[in-house]
Specification:
The complex is a heterodimer. By secondary structure, chain A is an all-beta fold. Chain A has no helices and eleven strands.
Chain lengths: 108, 113
């Protein structure tokens, strides 16, 4: 089956810093989503981005489907950005496969 | 926020007892999913449904069954709970399956003692 790898696994930032999270996948995908799981466990949709670039405030994402990767950019990080960021892909058959996540901690 | 309600939110049960978790949606989405989340494994698909009474297995379906008698409700049953089923369970919905965005419920924390 498809492999989804996220890097880095852990990231510690000072408030105000920028960061890039990466998601590599081993096969063609029908769609790709980025989620933020906050410290209370809630999964929040960030981007639905099978290809191209999207921006939402301080966050943006780019997926290059032909090269099988996606990037999530966080600019001017805030303590509320802390949590785990998941990449999830769908290859057909109504099944979504999640990466292991990047755990982010933003220090005040 | 997508209208997804999971119940109960927390449950402690004894080994060997049956347990049913409920997912209720108000979005009239066709597709519903049950995942479990465990440390070191991320989220893994247990079962999914592509319509009323239409369900299929995911990657970790052993020990679980599901039912969907109405569009809005998707039930997950642990037939005889084991300690290895201690986990956080998430329900998700999507409108058209593979090519549309999925939305998640708040999660149910289940502890099997």
């Amino acid at each position: 089956g498809i492999q989804v790898e996220q890097s880095p696994p852990d990231l510690i930032l000072q408030e105000g810093a920028n960061s890039t999270l990466r998601c590599n996948f081993s096969d063609s995908v029908n769609n790709l989503q980025w989620f933020h799981q906050n410290p209370w466990g809630q999964l929040i949709n960030l981007f639905y981005i099978p290809s191209g670039t999207k921006q939402n405030g301080r966050l943006s994402a780019t997926t290059v489907a032909t090269e099988r990767y996606s990037l999530l950019y966080i600019s001017s990080s805030q303590t509320t950005d802390s949590g785990v960021y998941f990449c999830a892909v769908n290859t057909g058959g109504f099944k979504t496969i999640f990466g292991a996540g990047t755990r982010l901690f933003v220090k005040a | 926020d997508a209208g997804i309600t999971q119940s109960p939110r927390h449950k402690v049960t004894e080994t060997g007892t049956p347990v049913t978790l409920r997912c209720h949606q108000t979005e009239n989405h066709r597709y519903m999913y049950w995942y479990r989340q465990d440390p070191g494994h991320g989220l893994r698909l247990i079962h999914y449904s592509y319509g009323v009474k239409d369900t299929d297995k995911g990657e970790v379906s052993d020990g679980y069954s599901v039912s969907r008698s109405k569009t809005e409700d998707f039930l997950l049953t642990l037939e005889s709970a084991t300690s290895s089923q201690t986990s956080v369970y998430f329900c998700a919905i999507s409108a058209q399956g593979e090519n549309t965005e999925a939305f998640f419920g708040q999660g149910t924390r289940l502890t099997v003692v």
